[in-house]
Design a protein that fits this description.
Distance between the termini: 30 Å
Order of helices and strands: HHEEEEEEEEEE
Radius of gyration: 17 Å
Number of strands: 10
Largest sheet: 3 strands, antiparallel
Shape: globular
Strand content: 15-25%
Structural class: alpha+beta
Length: about 150
C-alpha cells in the first residue's frame, strides 16, 4: 500500500514543498533551454528561455558557471550562458554539440566553490537545483544526447 508522508513540523513540510518547487523550476528551465535550440536560433535564446522560467518562479540563475561545447576537448566553446545576455550572439548551426545545465537558486545567485574544487554553494546559504542535458543541433531542430 502507498505510504503517507508525515512531517515533524509545519516548517519541515514547508521546506519539502519549497524544495520540490525549486527542483521543478530547474527541470523546466533546462527543458525550455533545450526547446530554444534549433538551426538559426541564437545562443542567447537559450539563456533568455532559462531566465524566463527562473523569473516566473521568483528564483535566480547562476551566472558564474555555464554550459560548454563538446568536441575533442571536453570544455570548449560555445559556452552557454544560462541567463539573459546580449554578448554571445552566436548562431546555432547543425552539428554543434553542447551542454545546457542551468543552476537555479532560491535566493541570491552569487556562489563560490569549496576547497574540494567541486562543490559549489550559494553565498547566502540558499538552496540550488540543477539539471543537465547534452544536445546536438540537427538540420531540423535539436536532439538530446543524454537520454537512454
Amino acid at each position: 500500500p502507498p505510504y503517507k508522508t508525515t512531517f515533524a513540523s509545519d516548517q519541515q513540510q514547508e521546506r519539502i514543498i519549497t524544495a520540490r518547487r525549486l527542483v521543478q523550476a530547474a527541470l523546466e528551465s533546462r527543458d525550455e533551454g533545450v526547446a530554444a535550440c534549433k538551426p538559426g536560433a541564437c545562443l542567447t535564446d537559450i539563456g533568455a528561455a532559462i531566465h524566463a522560467v527562473s523569473d516566473a518562479y521568483g528564483y535566480d540563475t547562476v551566472r558564474h558557471y555555464r554550459g560548454h561545447g563538446i568536441y575533442e576537448e571536453f570544455h570548449r566553446a560555445p559556452f552557454v550562458k544560462h541567463f539573459r545576455n546580449d554578448e554571445d550572439r552566436m548562431e546555432l548551426l547543425p552539428g554543434m554539440i553542447f551542454t545546457i545545465e542551468p543552476m537555479i537558486t532560491e535566493g541570491n545567485a552569487d556562489c563560490y566553490e569549496w576547497n574540494d574544487n567541486w562543490t559549489v554553494v550559494t553565498r547566502d546559504g540558499g538552496r540550488c537545483a540543477q539539471f543537465e542535458h547534452t544536445v546536438v543541433i540537427t538540420e531540423d531542430g535539436v536532439e538530446i544526447l543524454t537520454l537512454p
